[in-house]
Write a structure and sequence with these properties.
alpha/beta, 2-enoyl-CoA Hydratase, Chain A, domain 1, 13% strand
Amino acid sequence: MDAQRLLARNSFTELNARARARALLDPGSFRELIDPFERLSSPWLPRQGIVTQADDGLVVARGLLDGAPAVVLAIEGAFQGGSMGEVSAAKIAGSLELAAEDNARGIPTRAAIVFETGGVRLQEANLGLAGIAEIQAAMVDLRRYQPVVGIVAGPVGCYGGMSIAAGLCSYLLVTREARLGLNGPAVIEQEAGVGEFDSRDRATIWGLTGGEQRYRSGLADRYVEDDAADLRQALLDCMREGRPGRCRSERTEAFLASLAKIDGTRPATPADVATAYGKELRA
């Protein structure tokens, strides 16, 4: 990106969840559902001495995308690391289920999810896990009708059970700042040791799980500059393409074949991943 464009851009990663949802929807169409004034927050966090947030860190926005009905679900990474608890997960799952019901009635409601999450909220572990499972089931149901587009921009990234949800998206958009992985670097280091993964080695972290590498590996469909207008345009392009012939989660054979090429007796390098995964995985 040249200096003039860099100065003129509207960084998506620097926006909060509410501003991200507004930036993606058609101008003037943003309408928030279950907003903070509803005071629908976690009933479990106060019992552990944790201050709640009135929307439980999840923004549900209805509006239009390219003139068509849409729902944008944006996770607030600044609250509890974007973790999913009972309320936030239910807001996502319920919204996707209602979108599927709209489609069944002939209303072509689309969905986009902005992932900024470390996965399940440990303070609500079982409830959060059950909620993430409901999210995943709702995504698979909705994508029969309309594309479900995910966006991972940064700085938190997308980890844990919600990384599986990201893998279920019809299309996934990433930026250079994005990170995507089942387990976070600190968790891998804690469980397997620093010899397996050094959580302080930023070059390796982004080299293995960063947005550019995930795009090169076929685990993401668009690699987009950190600009709100560019991400919105990429989102619209995906919606216009419609449902892909086979979603990524329906192409397990190709991914398993690529995984089989990796030597599991030593830590993988970015070059190993780039070699094992090919561009054909995006086909």
